[in-house]
TrEMBL record:
Residues 7-61 form the HTH cro/C1-type domain. InterPro entries: Cro/C1-type_HTH, Lambda_DNA-bd_dom_sf. The keyword Hydrolase does not apply. This is Helix-turn-helix transcriptional regulator. The keyword Nucleus does not apply. Keywords: DNA-binding. Signal peptide: none annotated. SMART domains: HTH_XRE.
Amino acid sequence: MKFHEILRKERTSLGLNQVEFAKIFNVTKQTVSNWENGNRNPDSATLSKMADYFEVTVDYLLGRTDERNLQIEKPKLDEGITTINAKKINIDEDLPDEAIDKINEYIKMVEMMYKNKGE
């Protein structure tokens, strides 16, 4: 399928008419009509916002893949960390991504501090 067909399908699957969809993206109904008729394409920023709105990839919207969503792996504690008790009990499955990032940053900072002490 092509972008204009996918856009129409995604919009109608949410029960939105062109006017409602246009308001969401701060464009005119005519702009949405032009997108869905294949006369025009949105700019890259709008395309990215659409992908976020529909919870799909830009490649899916453009018809480059049939996969609606990328399989994004949740960050894990750094594999090099073997002495941390949190790693042993698999705490990373229960924490938000930001917490995992902070733990990894903290561990690296502590390693740097102790490596620098020995110099």
